[in-house]
């Protein structure tokens, strides 16, 4: 059955540097009306750098919305018109100092489809060459080295909470175990 909702009216209530928020009146598939509160976001990337010994490099960064530091794959927002691959390489360099000999697309995900339009593109970086990190102004983080097995255990113990990182770890482990990543359709 087709449950497509049709937008009848849209009202922007906030427009900022990172997000835009609008409230839409929609017609549901049964003809009734409802309201949708939507956060528009340009999207972002997460890149999991893994060295030749099988260790991944994650960043520990304070996240104000949760009031605590989280362990995450290096990540950042896409600039308008920027290719996800270019953003992944930029963020990898900025946050860890690494450059990648190979960048493997691991697909994408919708982090919160109930109210947000954001798409996050995931990558595995291998063939790492060290360099110097160059964080954005006001960005503070620590780089941590963990084995992929340790990160998986952290997921199972509910110690790793960031959805993009959980997904990137799982997909990277599958790829590195010999399962080639599936090519990304049009979006990647």
Tell me what you see in this structure:
With 188 residues, the protein is of the alpha+beta class. It has 2 domains: 6-40, no CATH class; 42-176, Alpha-Beta Complex (Nucleoside Triphosphate Pyrophosphohydrolase). The protein is 19% helix and 39% strand. The protein contains 3 helices and 10 strands. The protein has helices at residues 84-96, 148-156, 163-176; strands at 6-15, 19-27, 33-41, 44-49, 55-63, 68-72, 75-77, 102-109, 120-126, 141-147. The strands form 3 sheets. A 4-stranded mixed beta sheet has the order 7-4-9-8. A 3-stranded antiparallel beta sheet has the order 1-2-3, with no helix packed on it. Strands 6-5-10 form a 3-stranded antiparallel beta sheet. A hairpin with a 3-residue loop joins strand 1 and strand 2. It is elongated. The mean pLDDT is 94.
Write the topology of this structure:
Layout: E1 6-15, E2 19-27, E3 33-41, E4 44-49, E5 55-63, E6 68-72, E7 75-77, H1 84-96, E8 102-109, E9 120-126, E10 141-147, H2 148-156, H3 163-176
Parallel strand pairs: 4-9
Antiparallel strand pairs: 1-2, 2-3, 4-7, 5-6, 5-10, 8-9
Helix pairs in contact: 2-3
**Extended strand count:** 10
Tally of distinct domains: 2
Series of H and E elements: EEEEEEEHEEEHH
What strand line-up does the widest sheet have? 7-4-9-8
Measured between the Cα atoms of the first and last residue, the distance is 28 Å
């Amino acid at each position: 059955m087709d449950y497509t909702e049709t937008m009848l009216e849209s009202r922007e209530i906030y427009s900022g540097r990172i997000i835009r928020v609008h409230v839409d009146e929609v017609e549901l598939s049964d003809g009734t009306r409802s309201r949708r509160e939507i956060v528009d976001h340009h999207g972002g990337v997460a890149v999991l750098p893994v060295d030749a010994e099988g260790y991944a490099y994650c960043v520990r960064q304070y996240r104000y919305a949760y009031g605590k530091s989280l362990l995450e794959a290096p990540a950042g927002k896409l600039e308008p018109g920027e290719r996800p691959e270019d953003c992944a390489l930029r963020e990898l360099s900025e946050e860890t100092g690494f450059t990648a000999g190979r960048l493997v697309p691991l697909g994408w995900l919708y982090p919160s489809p109930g109210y947000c339009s954001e798409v996050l593109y995931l990558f595995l970086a291998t063939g790492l060459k060290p360099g110097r990190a160059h964080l954005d102004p006001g960005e503070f983080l620590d780089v941590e080295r963990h084995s992929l097995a340790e990160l998986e255990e952290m997921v199972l113990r509910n110690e790793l909470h960031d959805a993009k990182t959980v997904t990137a770890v799982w997909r990277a482990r599958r790829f590195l175990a010999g399962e080639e990543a599936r090519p990304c359709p049009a979006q990647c």
